[in-house]
Amino acid sequence: MRGHRRRRGGMAVVGLTGGIGMGKTTVGAMLRRLGARIFDADAVVHRLQGPGGRALPAIGRLVPGAVRDGVLDRAALRRAVVADPALFGKLEGIIHPMVLEECHAFLRAARRARCPIVVLDIPLLYEAGMDALCDRVIAVSAPGGVQRHRVLARGHMDRAQVEAIIARQMDDRQRRARADHVIRTGLSRALAWRQVRAVVASLRHAEERGST
Ligand SMILES: CC(C)(COP(=O)(O)OP(=O)(O)OC[C@H]1O[C@@H](n2cnc3c(N)ncnc32)[C@H](O)[C@@H]1O)[C@@H](O)C(=O)NCCC(=O)NCCS
Ligand SMILES: Nc1ncnc2c1ncn2[C@@H]1O[C@H](COP(=O)(O)OP(=O)(O)OP(=O)(O)O)[C@@H](O)[C@H]1O
Fold first, then answer.
1. Hey, what domains does the chain have and what are their CATH numbers?
2. How many Å separate Cα 107 from the centre of its chain?
């Protein structure tokens, strides 16, 4: 538990992490409705890789077939990095420093705007050591079967690709053991809401006591 660390500049920084398809975006949206400002690492990655994105030139050099006329073919990039783990590591080497930079810029802006609670929604929060930026961490979790079913139901990844991504991520049990709060998303949305409200109430309670 990092439960009683001092808040940084009057703002609670909450990490939100979990494996692919565990429910980070869904829980992030609930936290937003309760007043938190969200840093969405996946959305930042998509912007960096989108038309005119900063990461495109380096990705084009790494996987030449993946960038054509300044546009990234996500499916081609996914196939290439899943087939070759060394390439996956090199792609992360391009993207992660840029995500970290954007995250610091987000935190500076949120502090200037006096946001009471900010949430860093980052799949690889622990793997990339970005939990060091957080006062508390929430892990979202669901049974492995539910996780795989959800990702396959989206229809753009095959079984092998899902397994390759899961293999690159921290084991769910380890993540749950390290986090301050665990939100279970394997049951109904109503239950997830109840857990999210309880976490926010505990943050607000800590604020009143002057610690997180
Ligand atoms: C592998 C890529 C091409 C797959 O693209 P695709 O459009 O199919 O998926 P998307 O980007 O929406 O990611 C879906 C989920 O996969 C997982 N994931 C993505 N990248 C990684 C990674 N390097 N390691 C582990 N899990 C990852 C995350 O849970 C993410 O939420 C893409 O995710 C990518 O470029 N990843 C490298 C950047 C990265 O490390 N992102 C993680 C967040 S910082
Ligand atoms: N509590 C819940 N009850 C029911 N379904 C849920 C719940 N939470 C998430 N889901 C469903 O699971 C799927 C994955 O959720 P979500 O997109 O939030 O996960 P994610 O962790 O952000 O995924 P990714 O790592 O791929 O970005 C979605 O279809 C969502 O509707």
1. 12-209 (3.40.50.300)
2. 15
72, β-bridge pairs = 67
Is the model's pLDDT at 9 over the cut of 80? no
Nearest residue by C-alpha to atom 24 in ligand 1: 168
Ligand 1 center to 165 CA (angstroms): 8
By most ligand atoms within 8 Å of CB, the mutation choice from 16, 24, 26 for ligand 2 is 26
Q: Report whether 185 belongs to an annotated binding site.
A: no
Cβ burial of 90 (10 Å; 0-12, 13-18, 19+) is middle
Residue 4 phi/psi, 5-degree rounding, is -120, 25
**pLDDT tens, position by position, 46-88:** 999 999 899 999 999 999 999 998 899 999 999 999 999 899 9
90 is in an annotated binding site: no
Q: Is 158 helix (H, G, I), strand (E, B) or coil?
A: coil
Band of pLDDT at residue 166, cut at 50, 70 and 90: very high
Q: Using only the alpha carbons of the chain, give its radius of gyration.
A: 18
The confidence band for 208, taking pLDDT boundaries of 50, 70 and 90, is confident
Indicate the helix (H) or strand (E) that contains 136.
Answer: strand 136-141
Q: Name the pLDDT band for 206 (thresholds 50, 70, 90).
A: confident
CA angle 12, 14, 17 (to 5 degrees): 175
